[in-house]
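INFO batch 0412 | record 1 of 1 | parsing
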Amino acid sequence: MEHTLASEATLEGTSLHTGEKVTLTLKPAPEGYGFKFRRVDLPDKPFIDADVSKVQTVERATTLAEGSVKVHTVEHVLSALVGLGVDNALVEMDANEPPIGDGSSRPYVELIKKAGLLEQSVPRQIWEIREPIHIEVGNGSLITIVPDKEFRVSVTNVGKDGRFVQYFSSVVNQETYEKEIAPARTFTFYEDIKPLLDKGLIKGGSLENAVVVRGEEIMSKEPMRFNNEFARHKALDLIGDLMLSGKKFLGHVIAIAPGHGPNTGMAALIKKEYAAMRSMVPPLKLPEGEAVLKTEDILKILPHRYPFLLIDRVTGFSSEMKCTAIKNLTMNEEFFQGHFPGHPIMPGVLQLEAMAQTASILIMRLPDNHGKIGYFLSANNVKFRKPVVPGDTLFIDAEITKMRRNIGQAIATCSVNGVVVSSAELRFAVM
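INFO prediction complete | emitting C-alpha cells
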C-alpha cells in the first residue's frame, strides 16, 4: 500500500549556497500525490512538482524550476523519502534550498522517522523492469538498469584524475537505506570549489557539511564514515534523482561515474519507457467483408493447428500481397511455462513462425494453392529487438516481394504498441 507521513515535522538549518537560515517542513499528502515542493516564502506560495520535466540545471546539484520559481538541491530530501518508503508528501520551505545539514540525507531520515509513516488505502504501484534501460554520456558516465526482483543499486565512483575510485552495491530497503546509504556525506574536490569560495557562492559550505579532497588528503571535521563513503553518497544522489521519474520500480541500477546530469537523464528515460509500457494498443478498426479473416477462416487456409497456430486474426489486406495479422498473448501459452520460468518471453523462433504463417496466408488463399503447404527455405536478416511477454498483442505485417512458380520471398515484421520487436526476410516453397 502507499504510505504518507503520519504528521508534520520541521527541520531548521542553513542553505549551502546562500548561507541563509531555512525552515523545511514535511507534510502528509493524499494518495497518488507523489512529491511536491512549495515555496512558502513567496507571496503566492507556488508549488513545484518533483518531476524530471521540471529539472532546470544539474551542475553540482539538481534544481527544479516552475517559471521563475526555483528549488535547488532537491536530491537529498527526495532520496530520504524514497529510501524510507514514503510515496506521497509535501515539502514546504521558506527559501530556495533545503538545509544542507551534515551533507548527507540522515537529517531527513530522522525527520521522517519523527513524523512517522501512515499506510494509505491505495495499493503501491511498482514497475518491475523486464528489459535493460541504458544511458551513456560523453564524460564516461553510464547508467544501466537490468531486471531484478528487488530494487538494487551498484555504483562505481571515479574521482578526478582517477582518484578515490570506490564501489558500493546494496539492495535498497528502509533498513539498508538508513544504515548504509543515508549517513554518506557529499564530497568535493578543493580545486573545484576554491573559485566558488573566493566568489562567496557557497556561503553555507564548511568542513562540517562536506568532505573536501585536496590532493590525496581528506579534509573534514569528522573521519570518513565508510571506506567507500563517496560511492555511497553517489548512490544516495542517484536514488533521489531517479525518483524524479515519478515511478518506483524493481530493477538493478548499475552506475559508473554517475552525476546529476546522467541521473536525471535516466529518470527521463524511465518515465518515457514506463509511458510506452502502459500505453494501450490503439483501437483496432477492422475492415468489413472478405478482407477480415477470423480464426475459423484462417484454419481453412493454413494447415497449422493447436498448439502451433500463431495467428488469431487477419485484420486487413493492404493489397493482394500485403496483410496484417494479430496474435494475442496470454500466460496460458504453453511456451511461456518453460521459456523462461519466472521470466516469460515469447521465443524468437515462434515470432519468426508467426511471420511465416502471415506470409503464407497471402499465398495459400489463392485458389490454386488451397490444400498446399508452405515450407521454409531460408530466413535472412532476422533481428530480435525487444522481448515479447504475456499481455502483449503482436501485430504481424507481411508482404510478398517476389513469386516465381512455387518459390516466394517475403519481408515481415512483428510489432507491439507500435514498436517493431522483430523482423525477417523469408524465402519459402509452396508444395
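INFO post-check: The helical segments are 75-83, 106-115, 174-181, 190-199, 229-242, 260-278, 295-301, 348-364.
INFO record closed
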